[in-house]
Amino acid sequence: MSETQRTWPEAEKARYRAVGHWEGVTFGALLRHWAAGRGGRVALVDGDRRWTYAQLDAEADLIARGLFGLGIKRGDRVVIQLPNRAEFVLLWFALQRLGAVPVHAMPGHRRREIGHLVRAAEAVACVVPDRHARFDHRELMREVRAEQGPDDSLRHVVVVGDPGPGKDFVSFEALRTAPPTASGHGLDDGGAAPSDIALLLLSGGTTGLPKLIPRTHDDYAYNARACADVCALDARTVYLAVLPIGFNFTFACPGVLGTLMAGGTVVVAPDPSPQTAFALVDQEGVTLTSLTPPLVPHWMDEAASGSWDLGSLAVVQVGGARLPEDHARKLGPALGATVQQVFGMAEGLINLTRLDDPEDLVCATQGRPASPDDEVLVVDTDGRPVPDGTAGELLTRGPYTLRGYYRAEEYNRTAFTPHGHYRTGDVVRRLPTGHLVVVGRIKDQINRGGEKVAAVEVEEELLTHPAITAAALVGVPDERWGERSVAFLVCEGSAPGAREVAAHLKERGLAGHKAPDEVVQVPALPLTVVGKVDKAALTQRLP
Q1: d(CA 342, CA 223)
Q2: Could you say which of 128, 320, 400, 452 would form a disulfide bridge with 219 (CB–CB 3.0 to 4.6 Å)?
Q3: So where are the chain's domains?
Q4: What dotted CATH number matches 453-539?
Q5: Residue 227 CB contacts under 8 Å (≥ 6 apart), including other chains
Q6: Which fold has domain 214-441?
């Protein structure tokens, strides 16, 4: 199965080009254009290191020359597993200069995930840090290499930092200082076309190995640009990358790419703590940042200390999971900023509340599509559209939503409708305004004796209990009910018991069968590598 077989129909491609969604420019050419028009403006900040647009362009050329010397060329896949460092951005554009394809891994991935990505993408190289968060990624790559067969694709491991003794790994710094080759350095995008795959993102979820999501230059540039337009980004925008930089939300919603397209400045935060982030907001005049819901209480608590000047911060996006309405109403006043909810997927469709939406829409919905050509259907279990206000599965297609996963034809047969709509697995309600309210996931439901319990609904109501600061509801097998529900709670002091929780939920208007059968207090909820609650890890804690 060729990775280019499943794509948009020719008529839709022509329409997206005609209306200006697809501009027919590669990312390598975009960077060259930005450097020519705003070369002296600061594009990227990482600690005390700064790059103007001209310097970012020149650095991409240097690194591309070194990669070309390793034999990396158009179409080659390269796994990038880097924490929040400027090198991620520098390397990403260097690969675009060659027409090569970055594969966005997360810093928390380990041997199983990285090995899977290398095999699934047939990657020729991996780029890793020497150490991050007290973990040695060089040892990880030795393990991955040890599992490779003689016909496997991985040829090079590039290390940002100390590559260690011997010649097993290539130093990132050595790429930068590589001499020009006799045949030139293969720049000008390596002959890449705007319709080529520009990068491979990873599917979400908390179980199983991720699938690869192909994004083209045309569609991904529009993804970032459409989100930047909704967020009114301009040359004064200073975006703080707090979440993992390879996460689609951080990179292009509008994130890093959207900010650069608008002529703004990207500031890289080395960790997501509010102390680190608030210091950068004060120091760099940050105007926009993105969070996941688990970070929100910590940011509000730190802001209440009154130790920071957050006056420049205008917009705080929250996405990756549904933001409880109570938190949404408190976050804006706590930070002195406008809250924007973002609900989307690496596969494509991005929904955002608008900056001028009424408070009720901002706090109680997860936004509406970024593009006028995003097609949204909400359907019942038989695939029939349901009226506005009725919960159903979200189906979508459009100018930046994939038409097929990478080299996954068998899975694609069920993941897409015959008309090309992507089956998201999200259960939503659509309002007459077009805003979506996320009810849950089809698979994030607990079937308790035939009664369906949407976990997200119960979790949000649990957070209204004064003692509960975080909550996750999971289903576990049960002989009597088929499944029973367990609420994992993070609390101030002792957790309320199951009876107290049930009484509280009843008072909030929930049906009795939605009350958890069991309550377990935990010090914190485990998170996946992209900051979502890891429910698989929680269920493993049960006997």
Answers
A1: 13
A2: 400
A3: 49-193, 214-441, 453-539
A4: 3.30.300.30
A5: 252, 253, 254, 255, 258, 350, 352, 370
A6: Rossmann fold (3.40.50)
